[in-house]
Write a structure and sequence with these properties.
Strand content: 25-35%
Helix content: 40-55%
Order of helices and strands: EHEEHHE
Shape: globular
Oligomer: single chain
Distance between the termini: 13 Å
Radius of gyration: 14 Å
Structural class: alpha+beta
Number of strands: 4
Number of domains: 1
CATH class: Alpha Beta
Number of helices: 3
CATH architecture: 2-Layer Sandwich
């Protein structure tokens, strides 16, 4: 079944606007192309305005796991770290859908 890579970033201080613009114009398009996914989307938490999530839909768990271990992922992580050496922490999670009603 479908799997998702979810990247959750917490943006400190007043960097939200700059982060939002960078993610919109650079990082999300780069990641979508590198991952080869049909769906890449992102948004800000309605509960905590410092929390940004990007969600990438993969065909299945194997495709998501392969991408996590790929050189393309390493390039994207390095790009993120260069753009945001401080002020942004992030986590990644892969979720496999096991039920859909």
């Amino acid at each position: 079944m479908t799997a998702y890579l979810i990247v959750r970033a917490t943006v400190e201080g007043d960097a939200r606007e700059k982060f939002d613009r960078w993610y919109e114009t650079e990082h999300l398009p780069d990641a979508k192309a590198a991952f080869g996914v049909a769906v890449a989307e992102r948004g800000w938490s309605a509960i905590d305005p410092a929390v940004h999530s990007a969600i990438y839909q993969f065909e299945d768990l194997r495709a998501a796991q392969d991408m996590i271990a790929s050189d393309a992922m390493k390039v994207l992580v390095d790009e993120f770290d260069r753009a945001w050496p401080t002020g942004v922490t992030r986590t990644r999670e892969v979720i496999e859908i096991v039920q859909r009603l």
